[in-house]
């Protein structure tokens, strides 16, 4: 019979974890027991009990001590801590560089964490976020499927009747109204919605009940609106007058106020009223009309399987829809899960979500940037640790002589590193939460809702600590612990000065700094470029006012034209940057969607839009009813050789092209200019009054418009302003990019220069004898400086030669992704950063060589 | 009190070592406890108790010879030290006192309840 022997692997495992003083005896016991059991219980059972016995042997008193037997417990560790603290206070310069550098990088990491948490925390407070779906339609537009977030009005009601799998349905339709309470009158947006809305989206309530929406006479306010109208008073039970239009108004009773929305939210509301009120406010709306659309239709389905069932049965709605809307033939219905929709909302047109993927992209950038900054700081640490080990050679030598092994020296350096990193973590969290995050919130104008009271943060921070400690500490620890005692004590060990690894680290640092600076420069230049870039029309001298109807328009136009400062006034149905129509041109082979501006004869001139071909509309509006003006993009897209005289078909009516205007930005700079058609607006359609004023008089005219408005229409809030403010927010965004990158570049420069300064200083102090001899032999400031510079010049050259092209391509990549139109990419960013870094090097060297040439060479020679 | 502290399992282990003169090592102690108290004892629990008692100075150990079935691994024998004996006696004494006290009280209770 084969001698019974327990599983080898378990035996090895036992040997590994058991205390070495015990393991022979216990092993004997285990073997003895095993053999007996094989006989009495059989092999399998014996194996099992053996396994159990081994596992139960894992006890603190029986296992090997952590970290090896040489450690006599805590005393050694205590000693390491003591030397770490002494080291920190003894070399204030390098400690400062290390702690400050690491904490700056960690602060950026904390910021990155906060930003990511904010981005991914959107709408996470809704209990049903995973069960709610937004109904969307796919529409074939020019051969590509366009997803649209607005859905036919009857859809919600019909689905509710047809499907039993759907738990809840709610429709949402937004309208602009005037809300009045006492003397407070404002334009507001109300959401008409089914009472289920507040059951599906679980907004916490400050006062009142969310279920009260079931009453058609009740209105629910957001916290902001409650404060706007009632201050901090509890408004429950108060009456609020809502004017739907001039003939139609209704008084609502306030039955609920939502709590302040969390900083990270997508869907929200100002005012909520019952959907049934649409019948009061707009009696003409046909609720069974498939061509009429609502803002959103939500369904709640608890079982994802039911959703596939429902999606499979949507065909009949599609047919209903396509019967009435031939222009907007739907290819299919798609249900988008609410959780996560925020990030893909950019690809869905007109959907209720305000999100986009830009924040997700930003998270990726910030993660990459924080990682690189952390690397920068770690390289600083490594360099300084390696170079300053030269000063500690004797300590290491003595430690090794009295019995320290490679392992213990390594452990010592790792402990020191953990001490430094912990300090850095502490300061980094403070720096991040009190400086960087508030700074960012200030320039980006939003609240991240960052809090230290967040369990995930306290998982994140230790992992950062561990990551940083290992990244920065492992190499120096291994490197230093390898020194031979004899070499150290004989003094024959030469090192630090010519360590190739230090040089690689430094060049990597310089490279990263170069990239950061180049990107920051380009973003800053791009910002001013964008702000100065022509919009293609005159923004500076134009003001606009929104009016409610023809008579209001005519009254305003009359009074404003009396003002000598107003050169020209025009009326329009749409307005650049404020309201844009959309229309479909029928081509024989396809339908082609374009933007639409309905204007009068003065509009182009008032707005400064340049006509490059053909003529403008004539004063008499009826004569141009069948004529259109188009922009250059449309001419290019339709590949017309000669635009004037071409006919476009809209709703089977032919329109003749009489003019072509130069391209201008009717929407953000980050969107390509789209094809556009101008039609003549009937005077009854005028909703905007635009005015061209003399340069310098904008402010006075603005005041005058407001003045006239409040005299003519005291009941209606004023809506209008400077044309250049229309896109103000966008420039702020572009400006934020520049500011953030500048901030990061500043941190990168500080880190790189600290590292460089520390390294050069340590290097020079290590060679103090050499320099003293050189000085005695007659070397001056320049020759000493030359010697130091020579050491770093090649390294800089290599780093910058690699860094500059990388930054060029990186900028190209980022800009192409972020902006549709941007500053032409050139080497200006790279060259500025190269110059900056080179002057940094010379400055550091200058400071050091001056110090040498000022000092007495005799003291330098005396240094041991 | 406080001078001698013995846990229940520790006490059992000490006593078992006591009844196995010159024969008390891991396996024999384990078997003795298992057969006398009819309860399972894991090697780990026993070893850590032995180690603890040795650290307290109640037991001392010496190395024996390896045998065939132990594949040559030596046995580690245990015996009770003088201090260990004291500890055991102390424990026994306190237990006895408590027992007597309780029995007296039990009698009193019997009388008074009648």
At a glance:
The complex is a heterodimer of chains A (864) and B (114). Chain A has 864 residues and is of the alpha+beta class. Chain A folds into 5 domains: 8-56, no CATH class; 80-122 and 355-486, no CATH class; 132-339, no CATH class; 497-534 and 726-864, no CATH class; 542-722, no CATH class.
Keywords for this entry:
heterodimer, A: 864 residues, alpha+beta, 5 domains, seven-stranded mixed beta sheet, six-stranded mixed β-barrel, 25 strands, 51% helix, globular, B: 114 residues, Arc Repressor Mutant, subunit A, two-stranded antiparallel ribbon, 4 helices, elongated
Would you kindly provide a written description of the structure presented here, covering whatever features stand out?
The complex is a heterodimer of chains A (864) and B (114). Chain A has 27 helices and 25 strands. By secondary structure, chain A is α+β, with helices and mostly antiparallel strands. Chain A is globular and about 105 Å long. Chain B has one domain: Winged helix-like DNA-binding domain superfamily/Winged helix DNA-binding domain (Arc Repressor Mutant, subunit A), CATH 1.10.10. In chain B, 61% of the residues lie in helices and 13% in strands. Chain A binds chain B through residues 22, 24-33, 35-36, 52-53, 56-59, 61-62, and chain B through 25-27, 30, 42-45, 47-48, 51-52, 63, 66-67, 69-71, 73-76.
């Amino acid at each position: 019979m084969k001698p019974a022997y327990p599983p080898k692997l378990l035996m090895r495992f036992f040997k590994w974890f058991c205390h070495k003083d015990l393991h022979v005896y216990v092993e004997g016991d285990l073997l003895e027991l095993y053999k007996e059991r094989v006989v009495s219980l059989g092999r399998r059972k014996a194996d099992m009990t053996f396994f159990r016995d081994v596992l139960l042997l894992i006890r603190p008193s029986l296992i090997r001590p952590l970290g090896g037997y040489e450690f006599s417990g805590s005393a050694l560790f205590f000693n390491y801590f003591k030397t770490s603290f002494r080291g920190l206070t003894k070399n204030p310069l390098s400690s400062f560089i290390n702690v400050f550098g690491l904490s700056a990088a960690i602060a950026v990491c904390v910021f990155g964490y906060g930003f990511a948490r904010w981005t991914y925390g959107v709408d996470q407070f809704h209990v049903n976020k995973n069960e709610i779906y937004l109904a969307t339609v796919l529409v074939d537009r020019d051969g590509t499927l366009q997803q649209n977030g607005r859905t036919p009005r009857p859809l919600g009601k019909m689905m509710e009747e047809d499907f039993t799998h759907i738990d809840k349905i709610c429709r949402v339709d937004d309208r602009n109204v005037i809300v009045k309470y006492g003397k407070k009158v404002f334009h507001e947006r109300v959401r008409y919605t089914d009472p289920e809305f507040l059951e599906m989206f679980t907004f916490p309530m400050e006062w009142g009940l969310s279920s009260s929406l079931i009453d058609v006479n009740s209105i629910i306010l957001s916290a902001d609106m409650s404060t706007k109208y009632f201050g901090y008073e509890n408004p429950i039970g108060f009456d609020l007058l809502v004017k739907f239009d001039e003939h139609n108004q209704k008084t609502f009773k306030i039955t609920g106020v939502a709590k302040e929305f969390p900083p990270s939210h997508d869907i929200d509301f100002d005012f909520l009223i019952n959907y049934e009120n649409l019948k009061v406010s707009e009696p003409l709306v046909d609720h069974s009309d498939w061509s009429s659309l609502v803002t959103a239709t939500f369904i709640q389905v608890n079982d994802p399987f039911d959703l596939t069932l429902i999606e499979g049965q949507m065909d009949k709605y599609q047919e209903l829809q396509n019967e009435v809307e031939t222009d907007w033939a739907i290819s299919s219905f798609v249900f988008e899960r609410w959780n996560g929709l925020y990030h893909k909302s950019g690809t869905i047109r007109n959907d209720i979500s305000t999100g986009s993927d830009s924040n997700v992209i930003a998270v990726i950038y910030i993660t990459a940037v924080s990682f690189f900054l952390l690397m920068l700081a770690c390289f600083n640490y490594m360099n300084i640790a390696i170079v300053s080990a030269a000063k500690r050679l004797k300590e290491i030598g003595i430690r090794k002589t009295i019995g320290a092994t490679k392992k213990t020296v390594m452990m010592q350096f790792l402990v020191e590193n953990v001490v430094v990193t912990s300090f850095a973590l502490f300061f980094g969290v403070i720096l991040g939460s009190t400086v960087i995050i508030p700074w960012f919130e200030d320039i980006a104008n939003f609240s991240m809702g960052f809090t230290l009271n967040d369990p995930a943060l306290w998982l994140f921070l230790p992992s950062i600590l561990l990551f940083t400690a290992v990244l920065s500490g492992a190499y120096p620890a291994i490197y230093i612990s390898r020194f031979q005692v004899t070499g150290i004590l004989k003094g024959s060990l030469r090192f630090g000065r010519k360590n190739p690894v230090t040089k690689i680290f430094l060049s990597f640092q310089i490279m990263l700094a170069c990239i950061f600076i180049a990107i920051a420069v380009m973003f800053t230049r791009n910002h001013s470029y964008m702000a100065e870039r022509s919009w293609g029309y005159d923004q500076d001298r134009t003001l606009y006012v929104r009016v409610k109807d023809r008579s209001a328009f005519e009254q305003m136009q009359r009074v404003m034209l009396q003002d000598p400062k107003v050169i020209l006034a025009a009326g329009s149905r749409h307005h650049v940057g404020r309201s844009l129509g959309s229309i479909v041109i029928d081509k024989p082979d396809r339908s082609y969607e374009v933007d639409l501006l309905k204007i009068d004869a003065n509009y182009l001139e008032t707005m400064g839009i340049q006509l490059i071909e053909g003529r403008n509309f004539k004063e008499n509006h009826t004569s141009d009813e069948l004529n259109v003006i188009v922009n250059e993009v449309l001419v290019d897209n339709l590949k017309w050789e000669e635009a004037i005289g071409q006919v476009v078909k809209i709703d089977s009516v032919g329109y003749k092209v009489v003019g072509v205007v130069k391209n201008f930005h009717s929407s953000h700079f980050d969107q390509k200019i789209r094809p556009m058609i101008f039609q003549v607006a009937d005077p009854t359609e005028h909703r905007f009054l635009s005015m061209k004023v003399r340069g310098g008089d904008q402010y006075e005219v603005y005041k005058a418009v407001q003045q006239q408005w409040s005299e003519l229409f005291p009941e209606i809030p004023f809506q209008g302003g400077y044309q250049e403010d229309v896109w103000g927010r966008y420039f702020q965004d572009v400006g934020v990019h520049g500011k953030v990158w500048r901030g990061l570049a500043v941190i990168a420069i500080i880190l790189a220069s600290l590292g460089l300064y520390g390294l050069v200083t340590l290097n020079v102090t290590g060679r103090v004898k050499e320099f003293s001899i050189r000085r005695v032999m007659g070397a001056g400031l320049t020759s000493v400086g030359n010697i130091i510079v020579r050491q770093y010049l090649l390294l800089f050259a290599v780093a910058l030669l690699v860094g500059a092209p990388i930054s060029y391509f990186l900028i190209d990549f980022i800009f192409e992704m972020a902006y549709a139109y941007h500053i032409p990419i050139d080497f200006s960013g790279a060259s500025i950063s190269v110059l900056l870094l080179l002057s940094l090097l010379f400055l550091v060297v200058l400071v050091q060589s001056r110090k040498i040439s000022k000092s007495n060479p005799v003291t330098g020679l005396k240094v041991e | 009190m406080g001078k001698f502290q013995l846990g229940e399992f520790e006490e059992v282990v000490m006593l078992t070592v006591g009844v196995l003169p010159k024969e008390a090592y891991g396996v024999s102690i384990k078997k003795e406890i298992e057969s006398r108290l009819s309860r399972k004892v894991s090697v780990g629990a026993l070893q850590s108790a032995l180690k603890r008692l040795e650290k307290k100075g109640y037991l001392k150990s010496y190395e024996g010879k390896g045998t065939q079935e132990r594949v040559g691994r030596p046995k580690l024998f245990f015996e009770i030290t003088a201090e260990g004996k004291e500890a055991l006696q102390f424990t026994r004494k306190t237990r006895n006192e408590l027992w007597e006290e309780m029995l007296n009280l039990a009698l009193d209770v019997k009388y008074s309840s009648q």
